[in-house]
Amino acid sequence: MALVLALLTASGLLVVAGPGSAEAASCAGRKVRTLPFSTGRVDVYKRSGYVCAVTVAKKRGASRWMSVSVQARGSRPVLREGKRKERIGTGAVHAGRRCVWVKGAVSNGSTSSGWILC
User: Fold this and answer.
1) What is the pTM of this model?
2) Among the residues of 1-118, which ranges form H helices?
3) What are the boundaries of the signal sequence (predicted)?
4) Domain count, the chain
5) Host domain of residue 84
6) Does 2 fall in a domain?
7) In angstroms, rounded to a whole number, what is the distance separating the alpha carbons of residues 79 and 61?
8) Domain containing residue 95: CATH number
C-alpha cells in the first residue's frame, strides 16, 4: 500500500483534498488559453494530452460560489464546484487530441468556451 501511495504521489496523480487545498489549486503544463468574464477568469493548461482548468475570482474576499469543468469530446465533464475565496481547479483530464469544452463561474458571472484546442 505504501508503495502505491508513493508512486501516485511521485507521478502527480494523487490530489490531497484538505482545508485550503482548493485555494491553492493549480495545474501542471503550459497555459494555452484564458477565458475572461465579469467576475473572474478561467485559465486552461495543457500537458502531454492532458487538460486542466482553474477558475480564478477577479477579487479575493469572502467565500463565494465557484465552479470549473473540463469535458473532452465524447467523455463526461469533470466538474468541481463549491464555496471558495479565490480559485478552484479541476484535476488533469485526458483529452489526447480531442477537443475540450471548458466552463467556469464565480458568483453570478460565468463563461463557456465551446469546443477548443482541437
Assistant:
1) 0.78
2) 2-11
3) 1-24
4) 1
5) 20-116
6) no
7) 23
8) 2.60.40
